[in-house]
Amino acid sequence: MTKRLILHIGRSKTGTTSFQETLRENRELLSVNRIQIPPFFKSANHGALALAFSNQPGRIGKGYAVENENDRFNLQNELAQSLSRDITDGIWVMTSEHLGSKLKSETEIRSLFTFLSKYFDEIHILAMIRRPDDLAASAYAESIKAGRTWNFDEAYARKARRFFNHFAFANLWKSQLLPGMSFELIPFQKGASVQVLFNAIFIKAQVSTDLTRNLHITRDSNKAMSREGIQFLQLINPMFPPGVMTNRMRRGLIQVLSEFEGNSLTLTPSVYQFFLDNDLLTGGFEQSDLPASAQWSAWFSAPKVKVADWPDLTHEQIEELHQWCESQSVPSRRIQPATMPSSLVKIGETLRKVLIRRRRG
Questions:
Q1: What pLDDT, in 10s, does the model give residues 237-295?
Q2: 49: nearest Cα among 20, 76, 22, 74
């Protein structure tokens, strides 16, 4: 017998949360079929593995108590002890999109591979990719939910270029493969990404893909926010200084804004043009770069996504959104677009007082 690892590294916005929750919920069924999930990870997302080797842990690192080199070293030691104790012969699955997003250099990936090779005889890396023209609006919305304030334009696309360049991403990971390792890209299929990922795992594990029919699929319960909701959140993000809004408060605000009815997200003309000019509509790939299959053919021939400008919110829309938040007992602030820059300090102070009172209450 050998120790085999199937390592799912994302990418983000390809149904990773649903996949991870489904993996956890079906642990017993998978175990009966010789597929194991390590017991030592604290959540369905095995992000600790990524943070143990990332040189830039950022805000995600704080959630894992990893903020510097010493923290990474300690986490690596903890993982080493857990792997030595718990990993036995068989097939194991680890998953985190943070692996694909936080490990950005050859050195980080090589360190991860060298580490894992001490405990596994074979390692098979799986990464699902989504067409950038289909992905961009959703990825932008997530950045605003996380507190960013940039516009959905060419400057954003240029800054996030690494996230959309799947060709460079794949080459980076493949360049560091060690003996006994493989790397496979999987095309994202909307509404079926979880099943597609499990099929890929079962094929690697030499288990019948019929098992997919017996899985209890956990669907992502997050409701997509409207364009107006995202724009409103973008406007008020600067009003919440670091440390004032807790993660719980932000989640509450996002949930309330997700219930506000409005227009669906679209790709903006400037971002679409950036993808065209930089050969990124399909992530830098030509169809001949990838295996011939019906799934990849469908991925490359997908219909053009809707492209439309995002008009600025009117005063009436801002007032409506503010009243919506107030009706749900969520603090926001009436924003006058024309005077907003000159009133940032005053608004920030007001919000601090409101949120501090709310926190104490």
A1: 887 766 667 777 888 889 889 999 999 999 999 999 999 999 999 999 999 999 999 99
A2: 76
CATH code of the domain occupying 3-133+162-214: 3.40.50
Q: How do residues 185-222 score in pLDDT, each as one tens digit?
A: 999 999 899 999 999 999 999 999 999 999 999 887 67
pLDDT tier for residue 111 given thresholds of 50, 70 and 90: very high
Domain ranges of the chain: 3-133+162-214, 227-264+307-360
pLDDT digit string, tens, across residues 289-348? 999 999 999 999 999 999 999 999 998 898 888 888 877 766 665 554 433 434 444 444
Q: In the 3-class helix/strand/coil scheme, how is the chain assigned residue by residue?
A: CCEEEEEECCCCCCCHHHHHHHHHHCHHHHHHCCEECCCCCCCCCCHHHHHCCCCCCHHHHHHCCCCCHHHHHHHHHHHHHHHHHHCCCEEEEEECHHHHHHCCCHHHHHHHHHHHCCCCCEEEEEEEECCHHHHHHHHHHHHHHCCCCCCCCHHHHHHCHHHHCHHHHHHHHHCCCCCCEEEEEEECCCCCHHHHHHHHHHHHCCCCHHHHHHCCCCCCCCCCCCHHHHHHHHHHHHHCCCCCCCHHHHHHHHHHHHCCCCCCCCECHHHHHHHHHCCCCCCCCCHHHCCCCHHHHHHHCCCCCCECCCCCCCHHHHHHHHHHHHHCCCCCCCCCCCCCHHHHHHHHHHHHHHHHHHHHC
Work out the angle between the directed axes of helices 247-258 and 315-327 (0-180°, nearest 10): 120
Percent of the chain whose pLDDT exceeds 70: 89
In Å, how far from its chain's centre is CA 216?
22
The CA-to-CA distance between both ends of the chain, in Å, stands at 58
Which two three-digit tokens encode residue 256? 């309330």
